[in-house]
Write a structure and sequence with these properties.
164 residues; mainly alpha; two-stranded antiparallel ribbon; 2 strands
Length: 164
Amino acid sequence: MFSVPTEPRPGQACDKIRMAKLDRHGPAGTVRPLFSEGRILASDPEMLEFVREHVRSVWALELLLLLRRDPDRCWEPADLVRELRASQSVVQDNLARFDRGGLVRRDDAGCYAFAPAGPLLAELCDRLEAAYRERPVAVINLIAKPASPLQGLADAFKFRGDGK
């Protein structure tokens, strides 16, 4: 005789989903979610500060991750523009910010390579890449979210300098 598959018990599917979201690297017997209610790294002030200081746009994020993928390669700015299909000014502005922030190094020929100034910056870049791979929309929302509600309100009333 064979057994007929039965309906899953109530909550069984939810249990599997919850288990998939658990961090397997925690101490034995502990349950620690990777993400808190869809808010990426909500309890990680280091990551929030890192994103606020260094990654001010999705263009900056994509540029940083491109440089990080091949740290031994020294990129000419024109190659980065072509690879990302971005504007020259977006690439140059973000490279300058990364250089000042200790995320890249610029050589004498004017090309850039991923070279975090310390292990904490390298770790934050690794964690940002992992978070973006797993939850891209949440990371984009983190980047786009104003630092404070008052800043968001003030930005909404900025006048553009081009007369529009």
